């Protein structure tokens, strides 16, 4: 079984719709992260959370919000999706300052 | 100036050769360094971690760290076509350390049969 799971794996939606991407982990890690990846732009950090009560903005948080429902669950929401949010989204986890482990990703297309 | 820099490539090597991937970083007090492999459309997969100066070997992979030169590299011996992927260098900066990783843009490696 995968240690970090993401749902959905693929999503096509329309401009203005609200979208939620979910991430769950069974690694027992305290820290969770949301990244987006665009061709030529690499991985960019959207939000990160060090525990349930500690949520921080990353470098590109505008247009996104997150919720850490439990140590094992971290959700990313797009309140009103726009086409330039079309990207590959990854959730990652880490234990403290150590290496991060990534989920399989969600391919999001906003029409 | 980018905090973590990699040559985007593509780096093309013949099967069986040594592939050498390089990464430089700007934060002199960076603490830990990671190499990830990412196949097209897939998620990054951790392949090496290195924390102290010198070499660290794991199978066909060797990571090399030189903190004085702010340089980290990944050597892949006996390169195989299955090694063709993008390799991401990631650095955990020491200053104001929040545990975030700074990623380079990645180097695309092509191993030709």
Overview of the molecule:
The complex is a heterodimer of chains A (111) and B (113). With 111 residues, chain A is mainly beta. Chain A has strands spanning 4-7, 10-13, 19-25, 31-38, 42-51, 54-57, 64-70, 73-78, 87-94, 101-102, 106-110. The model of chain A has no long low-confidence stretch (mean pLDDT 94). By secondary structure, chain B is mainly β. In chain B, strand 7 and strand 8 form a beta hairpin.
List the helices and strands and how they pair.
The complex is a heterodimer of chains A (111) and B (113).
Chain A: E1 4-7, E2 10-13, E3 19-25, E4 31-38, E5 42-51, E6 54-57, E7 64-70, E8 73-78, E9 87-94, E10 101-102, E11 106-110
Parallel strand pairs in A: 2-11
Antiparallel strand pairs in A: 1-3, 3-8, 4-5, 4-9, 5-6, 7-8, 9-10, 9-11
Chain B: E1 4-5, E2 11-14, E3 19-25, E4 32-38, E5 45-50, E6 54-58, E7 61-66, E8 71-76, E9 85-92, E10 102-103, E11 107-112
Parallel strand pairs in B: 2-11
Antiparallel strand pairs in B: 1-3, 3-8, 4-5, 4-9, 6-7, 7-8, 9-10, 9-11
Structural class of chain A: mainly beta
Low-confidence segments of chain A, given as residue ranges, are none
SSE class of chain B: mainly beta
Shape of chain B: globular
Share in helix of chain B: under 10%
Find the biggest chain interface. A-B, 25 and 23 residues
Give the helix tally of chain A.
0
Average pLDDT of chain A, rounded to a whole number, is 94
What string gives the helices and strands of chain A in order?
EEEEEEEEEEE
The unreliable regions of chain B are none
How many DSSP-defined strands of chain B? 11
Coarse shape of chain A? globular
**Helix/strand order of chain B, N-terminal first:** EEEEEEEEEEE
> Span from first to last CA of chain A?
33 Å
Q: What's the count of strands of chain A?
A: 11
Descriptors for this entry?
heterodimer, A: 111 residues, mainly beta, 7-stranded mixed beta sheet, globular, B: 113 residues, 6-stranded mixed beta sheet, 5-stranded antiparallel beta sheet, 11 strands, 0% helix
């Amino acid at each position: 079984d995968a240690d970090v799971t993401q749902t959905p794996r693929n999503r096509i939606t329309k401009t203005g719709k609200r979208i939620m991407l979910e991430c769950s982990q069974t690694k027992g890690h305290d820290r969770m992260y949301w990244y987006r990846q665009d061709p030529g732009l690499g991985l960019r950090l959207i939000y990160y959370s060090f525990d349930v009560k500690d949520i921080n903005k990353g470098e590109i948080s505008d247009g996104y919000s997150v919720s850490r429902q439990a140590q094992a669950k971290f959700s990313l929401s797009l309140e009103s999706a726009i086409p330039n949010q079309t990207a590959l989204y990854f959730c990652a986890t880490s234990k403290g300052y150590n290496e991060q482990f990534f989920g399989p990703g969600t391919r999001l297309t906003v029409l | 100036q980018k905090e973590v820099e990699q040559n985007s490539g593509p780096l093309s090597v013949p099967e069986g050769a040594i592939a050498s991937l390089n990464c430089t970083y700007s934060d002199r007090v960076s603490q830990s360094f990671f190499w990830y492999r990412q196949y097209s459309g897939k998620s990054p997969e951790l392949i090496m971690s290195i924390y102290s100066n010198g070499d660290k070997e794991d199978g066909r992979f060797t990571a090399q760290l030189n903190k004085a030169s702010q340089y980290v590299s990944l050597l892949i011996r006996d390169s195989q076509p299955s090694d063709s992927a993008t390799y991401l260098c990631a650095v955990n900066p020491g200053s104001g350390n929040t545990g975030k990783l700074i990623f380079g843009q990645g180097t695309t490696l092509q191993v030709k049969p």
